[in-house]
Amino acid sequence: MSNDLFAPRIPEEVANKRPLADRLRPQTLAEVTGQAHLTGEDGVLRRMIEAGSLGSMIFWGPPGTGKTTVARLLSGEAGLAFEQISAIFSGVADLKKVFEAARLRRMDGRQTLLFVDEIHRFNRAQQDSFLPVMEDGTVILVGATTENPSFELNAALLSRARVLTFSSHDEESLEELLRRAETVEGKPLPLTDDARASLIRMADGDGRSVLTLAEEVWRAARKDELFDPDMLVKIVQRRAPVYDKAQDGHYNLISALHKSVRGSDPDAALYYLARMFDAGEDPLYLGRRLVRMAVEDIGLADPQALVICNAAKDAYDYLGSPEGELALAQACVYLATAPKSNAVYTAFKAATQAAKQNGSLLPPKHILNAPTKLMRTEGYGDGYRYDHDEPDAFSGQNYFPEKMGRQTFYDPPERGFEREIRKRLDWWSKLRKERGER
């Protein structure tokens, strides 16, 4: 920030009208709540600062978890110049200006921490432009994203930056933010205990959201007025994810729905689905969860489950409420009565673990294309057998990297359609042994 003595001063009464979330912004890493694994005594970032060695990082996490604040504090505690840009509003020309300013600072002996919000919004070429300035130390890049970096960022960029995960605030962390807000405002929130718990649940793990909601409550409250949960909903115009007087929470009920489907109990599944509809839950959220159940708990035991759930979600989107709810209810009953299998879910987790453990092994050369003379000389494509030309359209070749050898991840059960898949796999295994795997 500028230290210009002639810069206009903001009157105190105006400064105090800043949004509560801005006024409560932490001034040190120690004041950051909800991210102890990063900023706490033994947190990753705390250790980096103590070691005097910061590297480029990607901050991955949901909104309102402090990614921007932590980046700014990190630059201050490490003695770095801080630059901030947003991938939504910046282009190549803006990046060039930032890089040039960072180079000039570096010539003066000061390094720059460049914070890039929504970094996943940059295209591949724009992401590549960061690589030279990261490699030569011109900038320490800190990118923030709400999207999975593995899917949205270049492999080259990821290989030069450490991914740090920011967690949604838990109830304890949000309660701490409310206590701080009450200290700053000099008065308690005019809420009953149940209403306070509802407000925390409304925030859904977002620290900025819980402070914004608190501001709305203070603005609306008359002298000596105390809001209960029903009045709170009217004031902030947001339905609390609390579905009955027993205070069963949003996550408890979605868990109950999921487990009822998994346990093949259509009546219980419909009951929990109806409770969430009645409470005002977003039907498209429930549609997405039904799709998740189709791939996690039914899988290939009934391949139509995913098709039906997607169709139900689209039907709701097309019909709206209340007609669209029936399509989701139909999908819910279909899932609950379908044969169950988590074989693909389990196989994918095992394959993912194997991929991480074995590194970047080259596939066997016989299944690689050889578009150049050099590659043909190196043996690429040698010995490949075109399966359609083989007996039973099956060559029995090995497709795993040679250092790994054949692996088995997918083990379909004798249920539903996977009974047929099991027969096919057993048949191919028999042929593979008879013909000798290559």
Explained architecture:
With 438 residues, this protein is α/β, with parallel strands linked by helices. It folds into four domains: 35-165, Rossmann fold (3-Layer(aba) Sandwich), CATH 3.40.50.300; 171-238, Helicase, Ruva Protein, domain 3; 247-340, Zinc Finger, Delta Prime, domain 3, CATH 1.20.272; 363-437, no CATH class. It is 52% helix and 6% strand. The protein contains 22 helices and five strands. It has a five-stranded parallel β-sheet, with helices on both faces. Strand 2 (81-86), helix 6 and strand 3 (112-117) form a beta-alpha-beta unit. The protein is flat. The N and C termini lie far apart (66 Å). The relative contact order is 0.07. The model is unreliable at 1-7 and 241-248 (pLDDT under 50).
